[in-house]
Amino acid sequence: MSDVSFYGLVWRILPGPTALKVVEAVILVLAVVAVLFTWVFPVIAPYMPFNDNTVGQ
Question: Is the pTM of the predicted complex or chain greater than 0.90?
C-alpha cells in the first residue's frame, strides 16, 4: 500500500525547482487564508455559538 498524502500530491504537481515550489506553496496557503477570511468566515459567523453574548444584558 502506498502512503500518498494530499500535501505530497500538491508538492509534486507544483512546477519548478524546490525554491520556486516553496514560493508557490506559500502563495497557495495565503490564497486559501484570504478566501476563508473574505467569504467563508463571514457566511458562517452568524451560526457560531460564541456570538451569543450575555454580558451586559
Answer: no
